[in-house]
Amino acid sequence: MRKHVAVLMGGWSAEREVSLVSGAACANALKNAGYQITAIDVQRDMGPLLTRLYPKPDAVFNALHGRFGEDGCVQGLLDILNLPYTHSGLLASALAMDKPMAKAVFEAQGIPVAPHVIATRDQVLAGDAMPRPYVIKPLNEGSSVGVHIVRDGDNHKPLDEGGWTYGETVMVEKFIPGREFTVAVMGRDENAKPLAVTEITTSRGFYDYDAKYVAGGSDHEIPANISSDIYQDALKLSVRAHRALGCRGVSRADLRFDGETLFMLEVNTQPGMTPTSLVPEQAAHLGMSFEDLVSWMVENAECDP
């Protein structure tokens, strides 16, 4: 009998459209791999979701991105239902999504991170919260949603009066110049293994939402053209961050390299699975097809009842 997999996608975060693309791609690949698929467009009303999850599937492929789907909320629901699901569990998901908490975990493990302060929106509007250049980030959004870089000579206010919808408190983080790398990690605990190091370049100034998801928005060099020492350090740091947060399944670490030090920016516990996404590229670089990748994720799905 074919294994039944429910694929969660959509949601109501700022990343809904990307999640729909990710979910459709994963559902199609799993169907081609021989699984029975139920695709579920998750809405804020949990009643229909619970109805669609009965009779219970063998596993849930969580293709949600952003708040409520990536921050431990849906993971907690699936734990209550005792349904195995892909990617990280409740605690790791919540820690990774909360940028200040994740950085505290990284610092405790000796993983370099950029200096930051937490400021209110009013404080940011009133003046620089730290010397320029710096980056303003929502505390708990993904895919570079709401990220602003403030550079020397910028005259505009970083947060306009009506366009900020990500809460009254933000992270103001020192901008790290240099090169951007990303590393996918698969597995958990001592079995967690890195895939490869990709260098990301974009003409947009930084790797923002459009650079990530619009075709041609960025260039990916895999493997990254860096010294073997830096390459290995990037792999090791990414595994350390994955383990420090307690991640499982697949995660993706984003790093910056200023020419001397690798800085951990964040760990994505629900990395994109779109046609332009980085994790499928790294898997393919190592000879793993997209179907094999999503099948591995399903076969390694877990929950924390």
Top keywords for this entry?
3 domains; 305 residues; globular; 32% helix; single chain; Dna Ligase, domain 1; four-stranded antiparallel sheet; D-amino Acid Aminotransferase, Chain A, domain 1
Write the layout of secondary structure elements.
Elements (H helix, E strand, L loop, with lengths): L3 E7 L5 H17 L3 E7 L3 H7 L6 E4 L10 H8 L9 H8 L1 H10 L7 E5 H6 L7 E5 L9 E3 L18 E6 L4 E8 L6 E9 L7 H5 L5 E3 L6 H18 L4 E8 L4 E7 L9 H8 L4 H10 L6
Parallel strand pairs: 1-2, 1-3
Antiparallel strand pairs: 4-7, 5-6, 5-7, 8-9, 8-11, 9-10, 11-12
Helix pairs in contact: 1-10
Describe this structure in words.
By secondary structure, the chain is of the alpha+beta class. The protein has 3 domains: 4-86, 3-Layer(aba) Sandwich (Rossmann fold); 94-112 and 177-299, D-amino Acid Aminotransferase, Chain A, domain 1 (2-Layer Sandwich), CATH 3.30.470; 116-174, 2-Layer Sandwich (Dna Ligase, domain 1), CATH 3.30.1490. It contains 10 helices and 12 strands. The chain has helices at 16-32, 46-52, 73-80, 90-97, 99-108, 121-126, 209-213, 228-245, 278-285, 290-299, and strands at 4-10, 36-42, 59-62, 116-120, 134-138, 148-150, 169-174, 179-186, 193-201, 219-221, 250-257, 262-268. The strands form 3 sheets. Strands 10-9-8-11-12 form a 5-stranded antiparallel sheet. The protein is globular. The mean pLDDT is 90.
